[in-house]
Amino acid sequence: MRAGGRGDRVEYVGGTIAELPRSSAGVIDITGDQYFHYESRSAIVEVPYESINVLEYGQNAARRYILAAALPPMLAPVILMSKKRTHFLTVGYEDDHGHQQALVFRVSKGDIRALLACLEARTGRKVEFQDVEARKGGKD
After folding, report:
1. Is the N or the C terminus of the chain less surrounded, counting Cβ atoms within 10 Å?
2. Is residue 110 part of a domain?
3. DSSP conformation class of 110
4. Is residue 116, in this structure, part of any structural domain at all?
5. What is the pLDDT of residues 55-80, one digit of tens each?
6. By C-alpha distance, which of 118, 86, 63, 114 is closest to 13?
7. What is the CA radius of gyration of the chain?
8. What's the CATH number where 41 sits?
9. Count of domains forming the chain
10. 1 lies in a domain?
11. Please, is 81 exposed, middle or buried when counting C-beta atoms within 10 Å of its C-beta (0-12, 13-18, 19+)?
12. Would residue 128 count as lying in a domain?
């Protein structure tokens, strides 16, 4: 997250908004006092902070089996023990029609902590962590 609250390495990976194509890169801007703002090349979504009722963070640690299979046998165990962590933020909110909506983003490791802290401050809600590993990654 750059100073000012903009996360430029964010990818929308799914949710309930039909106008947003999956796997679209975009920017989350939380510098405004009233709205969570996400913008990609194809769409803009603004959600009033007061409508956000879920903030959830989780990690997906994927072991590198394919890479290990291509390496010499003595190096494969080292690669298998390493993990690549993917950081996911879910923003849930109630829309103008009273329907629950969800936005799921992949956020870079360097941006996630600041983004979580800013969202907690803006919404007044605590981030829910999916597991112990997520708690470590989002709060240490």
Report:
1. C
2. yes
3. H
4. yes
5. 999 887 544 344 444 445 554 454 44
6. 86
7. 17
8. 2.30.29.30
9. 1
10. no
11. exposed
12. yes
**Tens of pLDDT, residues 123-136:** 999 999 886 665 66
pTM over 0.90: no
Locate 41 and state its tokens: 């090349």
| Residues contacting 125, CB < 8 A, separation 6+ | 52, 53, 54, 55, 119
Distance CA 43, CA 140 (A): 34
pLDDT in tens, 66-122: 444 444 555 445 444 455 678 899 999 999 999 999 999 999 888 888 999 999 999
User: At 130, which amino acid appears?
Assistant: Q
Which residues neighbour 11 within 8 Å (Cβ) at sequence distance 6 or greater?
23, 24, 25, 26, 105, 106
Q: According to the model, what pLDDT value does residue 18 have?
A: 84
Range of the domain at 29: 6-139
